[in-house]
Amino acid sequence: MVQPTTRPQPASDQPPASTAPTISTLGQLRASGHQLRTVKQELRHNLLDRMRVGADAFPGIIGFEQTVLPHLERAIIAGHDVILLGERGQGKTRLIRTLTGLLDDWTPTVAGCEINDHPYAPSCARCQRLAAELGDELPVVWRPRGDRYGEKLATPDTSVGDLIGDIDPVKVAEGRTLSDPETIHFGLLPRTNRGIFCINELPDLAERIQVSLLNVLEERDISVRGYALRLPLDVVLLASANPEDYTNRGRIITPLKDRFGAEIRTHYPLSLEAELALIEQESQLAWDGADPGAVLPDHLVQVIARFTRLVRASPAIDSRSGVSARFAIAAAEAVAASAVRRAAIAGEPQPVARVCDLPAVVSTLRGKVEFEVSEEGREQEVLDHLLRRGTSDTFRALLGNADLSGLLARFSDEGVVETGDLVPAADLLRRIGEVPGLAKIMERLHMAGSESPGQAAAALEFALEGLYLMRRLSKDVVDGGAVYRS
Which terminus of the chain has fewer CB atoms gathered within 10 Å of its CB, N or C? Predict the structure, then answer.
């Protein structure tokens, strides 16, 4: 049963596991025995260390264990730059951000350096000048691994200056000449020197801007306008793209594709278990950490997961666009929000989601799905049908062979039960009456030991809906509610 939770903290935002070293000068750094390693060497070394002890190198990544991650591990060990190809909502950016967890906790840089030069090998004009003047007294500061990640969403208006750099008019106005390399304003890539840089939606980057990345991936350096310098960079470049972008919005130029060492395809969860784990991990059922949220029973999470998978597999859906994992996550959040709304209006002490909260998901999430042209005008009908299928499949899996005679007996004398998204759990239980075998039903739904009226009502309403879908009860939809009858 999914309890209220908050989203996991991205790996790039997590603090290092240790405190920063106290070393503050180049001389002290040399005396400590510190060794200079490139970013690719860091990633490779730390990944292999984790693999040897069986630690999770990519926390929070679900469903890629036997498919995507082995390819990514090989790419890291080989020292490759990587492009991830996959439809929207497959966790490409999330996966890239976890790589910061493979960097060293802290790394030394020259104090005040805009491009994070290592004290042993300064490359910018400023740091080279300071190193010559100060020698072993060159000041050193320590950067945490979270600060060594840079990211840019590729947009058509992105310029070479944004990525690489340009002349800084303020420095020129201060009296420096244009020939002075210290008048350069460095772009995002050099400012992420000695770190990991990600370009999201790479095909959206104009082709003439993609050309500026060729040297970064091959010669591992950059040049800025007419300056006579070649600034070496130590950076791992990763990119994400949707396969259809090659024809719809843009393309990755061939020389740039050739320079990426590895191209890895991602995918949606291959199994129901992975889909369920993803929803449970990502669904945010508490808002701002203060609201108590709602309980989302396991059987409703299964309905949402099966519904999502049916939508992806439906011929009525444009498969090239895909159905994002955010679809299922947003559905779970919407169902929980419906339960909280009912509790606020009806005065329920504990919000518990029920089957009556599911229909609102269809109209809310319809805009997140791209339909085939032939299905225009039938979007609501298609999603309603798939939601019923997801509910019936879940009912068969959990209560298909359960003894529901005690519940059916409630309808033996032309009895009816009315429910709806604003009907409190206590009212629903009173309308149904005592049901023999309720404890067994709740046990099968993984709700054993749950004594609250909200959870009992959730179990019984799911059983009623399943009996209707199995054609053992009839149902009339009235004013947003439902009336079950024999």
Answer: C
Interacting residues of 434 by C-beta distance below 8 A, sequence separation 6+: none
Please indicate whether residue 447 or residue 17 has the higher confidence score (pLDDT): 447
Distance CA 30, CA 251 (A): 47
Q: Is 193 within 8 Å of 238 (Cβ atoms)? A: no
Distance from the Cα of residue 416 to its chain's centroid: 44
pLDDT band at 4 (very low <50, low <70, confident <90, very high): very low
Q: Please answer whether residues 206 and 249 qualify as being in contact, where contact means their C-beta atoms are separated by less than 8 angstroms.
A: no
Domain coordinates in residue numbering, the chain: 11-265, 272-485
* pLDDT tens track for 58-97: 998 999 999 999 999 999 999 999 999 998 889 999 999 9
Alpha helices in 377-482 (DSSP H): 379-399, 405-408, 425-432, 438-444, 453-469
| Residue 261 per-residue DSSP state | S
The CATH code that applies to domain 11-265 is 3.40.50.300
Longest dimension (CA), the chain: 97
Q: What integer pLDDT is reported at residue 42 of this predicted model?
A: 96
pLDDT for 448 equals 76
Give the count of alpha carbons within 13 A of 43, CB side only.
27
Q: How far is CA 263 from the centre of its chain?
A: 20
Q: Could you tell me the end-to-end alpha-carbon distance of the chain, in angstroms, rounded to an integer?
A: 31
Sign of CA dihedral 207, 213, 218, 224: positive
- Copy the structure tokens of residue 107: 């790394």
Long-range contacts of 4-9 (CB under 8 A, 24+ apart): 4/285, 4/286, 4/291, 4/292, 4/293, 4/294, 4/295, 5/283, 5/284, 5/285, 5/286, 5/293, 6/284, 6/286, 6/289, 7/282, 7/284, 8/59, 8/60, 8/281, 8/282
Q: What residue has token string 């199995």?
A: 470
Per-residue model confidence as pLDDT tens digits over 400-415: 888 899 899 888 877 8
**The tokens of 433 are what?**
């009456």
Measured between alpha carbons, how far is 163 from 51 in angstroms, rounded to an integer? 34
Is a pLDDT exceeding 50 seen at residue 247? no
Residue 107 phi, psi (nearest 5): -140, 140
Which tokens go with 220? 């591992």
- pLDDT per residue over 431-481, tens digit each? 998 888 899 999 999 887 777 899 999 999 999 999 999 999 999 888 778
Q: What are phi and psi of 430, to 5 degrees?
A: -65, -40
- Write the DSSP assignment of 16-71 as a string of letters: PSSPPP---BHHHHHHTT-----HHHHHHHHHHHHHHHT--SSTT--S-TTTHHHH
Helix %, strand %, coil % of the chain (to 5): 45, 15, 40
Does the pLDDT at position 266 exceed 80? yes
